[in-house]
Amino acid sequence: MEIALGFVVVLVCFITWMYNRLVRARNYALDAWSGIGVQLTKRHDLIPLLANVVKSYAKHETDLLVRTTELRAPNISDDTQKTEQREQSFGKQLNQIVVLAEDYPEIKADQNFQRLQDNLVAVEGDIESARRYYNGAVRDLNVLVESFPSNLIARQFSFESRKFFELELPAMRATPLIKLS
């Protein structure tokens, strides 16, 4: 009887401990996702400022600016894949604005544009850091949800694996331009 009672107590303690680990891992992942949302919002807030500077120099490029501004509304949801797709499109549009600025030396010389471009580079670095933190938190959660014996408790209490957030920035795929002058 005492052995059975001891076994039940140990089992309850183990289940409680594992459940709390799963809750902690899930909350870290949710917190990290929130951090990505903050960084993406900062990125999106730079767009009207960049668009206004470019618009003042490149009046005939309004179509690109309008499309980019339309994509800027950050709608961070729990759907990692939708957010990835939207941010991939947004990043391509944003890259086109920066490339457009290359065609207009007066834009590149504008101090407001330079400051905004520097801010954008800093925000992209912050997004990368937030993405790495999120993916680490998701990795830890997924290990708990998918490995034995925690997977038994995870399944019982409806814990689910999350998808990693892969945000490929257009600049990462671009071939670097080397000027030998």
From TrEMBL:
Principal cellular location given in the protein's record: membrane
Membrane topology reported for the UniProt record: Single-pass membrane protein
Protein's name in the database: LemA protein
Keywords: Membrane, Transmembrane, Transmembrane helix
Transmembrane segments: none
Location within or outside the cell: Membrane
Superkingdom per UniProt: Bacteria
One Pfam family linked to the record: LemA
Gene Ontology CC terms, in alphabetical order: membrane
PANTHER family: MEMBRANE PROTEIN (PTHR34478:SF2), PROTEIN LEMA (PTHR34478)
InterPro entries documented for this protein: LemA-like_dom_sf (IPR023353), MamQ_LemA (IPR007156)
Family membership noted in the UniProt record: Belongs to the LemA family.
